[in-house]
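B., you asked whether I could sanity-check this one before it goes into the benchmark set. Here's the sequence:
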Amino acid sequence: MADSRNAAKPQRRTGVREAAAQATRDSILKSATKVFAKYGYDGGSVEKISKAAKSYDRMIYYYFGSKEGLFIAVLEGIYKRMDDAEAAIALDASRPVEALTEVIRFVLGYYRKNPEFVTLLNTENLHKGRHISKSLRAREYSSRAVAIIAEILASGAAQGLFRRDLNARDIYLLIASTGYFYTSNRHTLTAFLGEPLESPEAITHWEDFVIETVLRTVRADDIQEQENNSPPHDEDTTKWQKSQPAQSRARSSSRT
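And here's what the prediction gave me:
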């Protein structure tokens, strides 16, 4: 009995140390995300980050090797959080119109609700992607997003709703660009266009427009002909009816 108790003590201490180490690492990452988003890569010094994390400079070098290593970890972290959030969406690929609509709503909403994500990507693009290109994990996050869209497009094509010549990467880029550009340039565009692009009405209007644009892009050329000949997918093809106003069609696509 005495031997087993003595053997258990080092294990408990090791567990505590590991938990403390992980907490320190997480705190540094969280603080670094905020500092880099606020000051950029060049202005986000190790000193600022360690101070924000209530840690020490040496701990940053211990866990991440360098400032660049920390920045890469930050970029991987923001991609992973978006990837995890997208994976948590309940999508039914057998209903491709609704599934693709939900993906669009998620992407646009995620950019809007996570401005640090957009700011950090802007920073990395200023550096021509030289840090994220060294990441061993970034590709796996984009692969999942493209795979989800590929599954939806394949289902839509099999049902005669979507074109068969679509590239999932192209649709991903179309969705991402419409959400990213609107969010990253909302302040300058508000001044340039003289319209409050951050108002609830403006956001809803843009989301509806993007949904309509993407659905028209993926729509099969023979959908209208199918509609006129009582197709087997009446419930789905009604979403494509041109007689409805654009905004109404976009909304009905997500609710039917």
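One thing to flag: DSSP finds 13 helices and no strands in the chain. Otherwise nothing jumped out at me.
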